Amino acid sequence: MLSKRLKLFCLFIAGLSITACSPPDATNEDGTIDTSKVYRWKMVTTWPPGFPVLQEGAERFAEKLEEMSNGRLQINVYAGGELIPALQTFDAVSQGTVEMGHGSAYYWAGKVPEAQFFSTVPFGMNPRGMNAWIYFGGGQALWDKVYAPYNVKAFPLGNTGIQMGGWFNKEINSVADLDGLKMRIPGLGSKVFAKAGGNPVLLAGSEVYTALERKTIDATEWISPYHDQRLGLYRAADHYYYPGWHEPGAVLELSINSRAWALLPPDLQAMIENAAMAENLRMASEMEYLNAVALGELRDRGVDIRPFPDDVMQRLKSLTEETLVEEAANNPKFKEVYDAYQAFREQDATWTEISEEAYLDVK
User: Fold this and answer.
1) Nearest CA among 155, 123, 126 for reference residue 139
2) What is the pLDDT of residues 124-136, one digit of tens each?
3) Taking the CB of the first residue and of the last residue of the chain, which one, N or C, has fewer CB atoms within 10 A?
4) In this structure, are residues 220 and 246 in contact, taking their beta carbons and an 8 Å threshold?
5) Residues 6+ apart with CB under 8 A from 318
6) Closest CA to 144 of 136, 135, 133, 155
């Protein structure tokens, strides 16, 4: 039987970090896990109801967990706006209003600027590199450290893959063509775009098509061929550019209130962690498949699909480096994550150059 002092110690440690001690209310008197206890949680997301792949993946994750736990962990999933506004997901999890959230870390860049490195960075690592960094290169421990003050524990749960550069109603033949261009673009990419002379605009996904069609914006990025085609953007713009320099693979984030996490028994914690890893792979793979199919369909529609000119890409890349250095100089927490990210990225790039890139360069 656990002594009263040991139970109090376990509870104290659980409130600070993930603990190997089973929480008192999940433990039988003999110290074994109480498998009769049912946990009923809420998850809120940043995605619209029924949003393909992303919202569907969050809901599938919850269903799998209930099945794996034999009903001990039941999670009701609410799309953005159904329970709370979409972009208040992180705050709701942090405050314990709900136990779980699903979104992407750059949505809360205003509160946690350094969190963007766990989502996507212009000209940064692709999904393969991000998974290597988070799972094996120290990224997860750093993510835990960044979110600890907010009472949030996070895991990767999906990836959009390398995105497209966006839809434009004018040709981009040089850097000068970006001057004054009104484009819907979020995150660090918007700061880089502004440095290039563009006029970044923040719009919700539901407003993108109408704004582009009515020419209140000149261009927009969204996601990739599958979601872009579903939104009908090919009907509102003449040119579809690549690559998505601003989002080379946005990591989708499972966020968990750390106090709720600490109260779970170790077996349910393990189920969540492994189910998140499985869904991370599944969603990324689904995006690759759907985008390949949709790209062919867009070509069949006669969509003008073209690359950004080399000088435009080089200018955006140099401005990205400038922006990151400036952000790091003004924010020690940002700098800590930036330095770790860059160190791993440089190491990974050396291997990538003679493996994946060398292979893809063979014609």
Assistant:
1) 155
2) 999 999 999 999 9
3) C
4) no
5) none
6) 155
Phi-psi region of 96 (alpha: psi -120 to 50; beta: other; left: phi over 0): left
- 187 within 8 A of 120, measured Cβ to Cβ: yes
Task: Annotate the chain with three-state secondary structure.
Answer: CCCHHHHHHHHHHHHHCCCCCCCHHHECCCCCECCCCCEEEEEEECCCCCCCCHHHHHHHHHHHHHHHCCCCEEEEEECCCCCCCHHHHHHHHHHCCCCEEEECHHHHCCCCHHHHHHCCCCCCCCHHHHHHHHHHCCHHHHHHHHHHHHCEEEEEEEECCCCCCEEECCCCCCHHHHCCCEEECCHHHHHHHHHCCCEEECCCHHHHHHHHHCCCCCEECCCCHHHHHHHCHHHCCCEEEECCCCCCCCEEEEEEEHHHHHCCCHHHHHHHHHHHHHHHHHHHHHHHHHHHHHHHHHHHCCCEEEECCHHHHHHHHHHHHHHHHHHHHHCHHHHHHHHHHHHHHHHHHHHHHHCHHHHHCCC
Instruction: Locate 111 and state its tokens.
Output: 């509160």
First to last CA, the chain: 68
Phi then psi for residue 282, to 5 deg, are -65, -45
- Name the token pair of 255: 């966020």
Give the separation between CA 126 and CA 159, rounded to whole angstroms: 10
Distance separating alpha carbons of residues 211 and 238, to the nearest angstrom: 14
Task: Please check whether residue 253 is in contact with residue 139, taking contact to mean a CB–CB distance below 8 angstroms.
Answer: no
The pTM of this model reads 0.89
Alpha carbon distance 333, 145 (integer Å) = 10
Neighbours of 303 (CB within 10 A): 21
User: Measured at the alpha carbon of residue 116, what is the angle toward residues 99 and 245, in degrees to the nearest 5?
Assistant: 135
